[in-house]
């Protein structure tokens, strides 16, 4: 079966999550999250984050982000985000919908990162009542272009936000890849750095489905269960959403898989550079962004490879997952080298 680089959600369920899922499939258990699996995973997340956070499980990242952002603001508020942020480009207006109209205010930033200067500029630009009042900020870790915020960068941004009266949300669809790459305590790039709520991605790290919304500021999670229910995001058989996390969070399996995906991206990145292909961004986690010459792009697609070119700032996005094989990376590189050689000979 051919593997692909289109997205880390092309991969299947990792064995540890599968085992935990099957183990949960015995007998009856209370519904709607009142079960032992959900309690255990929530406690495990509290251990991992070294704090008494509030945890909810929803089906996907769009819901996690939108519902979490809605806790930060009223309908007349705004939320600052990067212009390439998934909440802005790929969530079909869900953040605005679930917040009853709060507006996303986008800003530019090198290599997918927000900067304190740009945040300050957009927040202080206007304070009149004709403009939606800035109240939230969201940053993505790892960013949409595969780069990372270092712990001090998260802290500086969150500090800027707090001084400007904004609450801080982190889109952690690839949080595992960030923790694995930075080799930091999860707390150091979240609540200790000033993040109020994290959407911790499960799907891309090898779960069948589901993301955890982790509230470090527990005041924000008041009534969150009702938001989830109203949005159709409260799983009745919650144990099947939560139990796979147990397999993932035991013995640092999540970090093992994320480290593997990151290593495959490094292998791919190095191979592309050796083949003379230009990288658009530094490879810091599990995504590689490259400028493929048109004949190479077309040739790869003709050979059946799948990858996206509409994400981020253009170019080809090549994502590695927990199951990406070194041989798959090498096969893609071999095709790229052959196609580049053929293009050069034209
Ligand atoms: C940065 C980011 N955030 C969130 C998501 C989650 O989106 P979905 O609603 O498809 O689970 C994705 C998935 O592509 C993503 O890349």
TrEMBL record:
Example GO biological process: L-threonine catabolic process
Catalytic activity, EC: 4.1.2.48
Keyword Chloroplast among UniProt keywords: no
GO molecular-function terms, A-Z: L-allo-threonine aldolase activity
UniProt keyword Metal-binding, yes or no: no
Stretches assigned to the Aromatic amino acid beta-eliminating lyase/threonine aldolase domain: 5-291
Alphabetic keyword roster: Lyase, Pyridoxal phosphate
InterPro entries xrefs: ArAA_b-elim_lyase/Thr_aldolase, Low_specificity_L-TA_bact, PyrdxlP-dep_Trfase, PyrdxlP-dep_Trfase_major, PyrdxlP-dep_Trfase_small
Family, per entry: Belongs to the threonine aldolase family.
Function as written in the Swiss-Prot or TrEMBL entry: Catalyzes the cleavage of L-allo-threonine and L-threonine to glycine and acetaldehyde.
Subunit structure, as described in the record: Homotetramer.
Protein name, UniProt field: L-threonine aldolase
Species this chain originates from: Denitromonas halophila
Lineage of the species this protein comes from: Bacteria, Pseudomonadati, Pseudomonadota, Betaproteobacteria, Rhodocyclales
